Amino acid sequence: MRLVVLGGGESGVGTAILGKKKGYDVFVSDFGKIKANYKEVLIINGIAWEEGTHTEDLILNADVVMKSPGIPEKKSPIVKKLLKKGIPVISEIEFAIPFTKAITIAITGSNGKTTTTMLTYHLLKSAGLNVGLGGNIGKSFAWQVADDKFDSYVLELSSFQLDGIKHYKPHIAIITNISPDHLDRYDYKYEKYIDSKFRITMNQTEEDFLIYDADDEAIAEWLKNNKTKAQLIPFSLTKTFEMGAFIKNKSMEVNIINEEEFTMETETMALEGKHNMKNAMAATSVAKLMKIRNTTIRESLSNFQGVEHRLEKVLKIQNVQYINDSKATNVNATFFALDSMNTPTVWIVGGVDKGNDYNELMSLVREKVKAIICLGVDNRKIIDVFGNVVDMMVEVNSMEDAVKMAQRLAEKGDTVLLSPACASFDLFENYEDRGNQFKKAVKHL
């Protein structure tokens, strides 16, 4: 069997290693450059590879192709040719899952999926479970399956990874929320993106579970018009359920069939903000399904450290709090960030716009934002929408300038918030680079 891997990054190299271990004839092809450390791994394992090109003769003879999630199938000529020939093009998760007996917990959503994934992993690991972490985070899932050490995995899955599954079914699936994102990959049709997220539950059976945000319109609409066999576990900030998770009298309650009810005062949790209450309800629902004791869950919820670049408190300087929310790459994520601000805010925003509608933020900007610093190559849309709403609006083209300007505009008791609502590729390598540059600039003030 010939396995061709398109993309020589973490998921590609992990898949190649698993394929080789399982007896496949493996070839890795990357149209860009493969990082030196990954090349070394491929060479040590005797895996053939190429970079800077896709040699058709070495690719179109594949029995199966694993495509890295970053390659858009509609735009990639080689993927189009593979599909035309009827060669299966699948994701890393789909390729790896037959080679493990481990239980998987899969988490998707437009926002909150990283925090929910990390919190779920933290809850299970703290309880002593032999659990791995993969998908969009950390070490490749396929690579971990090749080493085969874990009884269960918590996987963060993007819509791109879900597009490449055919038979994969998680025992527990979570959809944190759905808001317009990556629409350029879905013909600018929101319905297609929503359907893509719900692929997470398409193979689930009556023995499996789907945990979801019952306050989310797109999710509610899909569930009204479509069926899943999975047992449904909703969570909500406003509704209560016989089976599900909810907030009542400043307390989080989680009721799962045949399990002792879980309650915890929300103010004793490490995470702050309404969106984090939702992330906590989703993660706690998993912990209850995995039969973890209430005392262990409470302890883990109160000592969780949060996720880097997501509402990360950097420093307080002259009584001004600097917050790094570089992971907010869409309007919905920035909405949550602004919503959790309790002081006058100097907001650093901008980057590569993915078709954003900034009007959704209007009421929050009016209420909370005193100044806007635009950090992007093209800030026209932001200026058009908010130009008359805030007292001060400035354009800068480096993170250092943005932070220095923010320091000038902020007064004692204010917050400086980096929450860009955009992708980072105009001025930075990725959102991590953007967040790290912000932290560095703040530390140099």
UniProtKB/TrEMBL annotation:
EC number(s) recorded for this UniProt protein: 6.3.2.9
UniProt catalytic activity: UDP-N-acetyl-alpha-D-muramoyl-L-alanine + D-glutamate + ATP = UDP-N-acetyl-alpha-D-muramoyl-L-alanyl-D-glutamate + ADP + phosphate + H(+)
SUPFAM superfamilies with a match to the protein in the record: MurCD N-terminal domain, MurD-like peptide ligases, catalytic domain, MurD-like peptide ligases, peptide-binding domain
GO molecular function: ATP binding; UDP-N-acetylmuramoylalanine-D-glutamate ligase activity
Keywords: ATP-binding, Cell cycle, Cell division, Cell shape, Cell wall biogenesis/degradation, Cytoplasm, Ligase, Nucleotide-binding, Peptidoglycan synthesis
GO biological process: cell division; cell wall organization; peptidoglycan biosynthetic process; regulation of cell shape
Coiled-coil ranges from the UniProt annotation: none
Designated name of the protein: UDP-N-acetylmuramoylalanine--D-glutamate ligase
Organism (species): Flavobacterium fluvii
Source organism phylogeny: Bacteria, Pseudomonadati, Bacteroidota, Flavobacteriia, Flavobacteriales
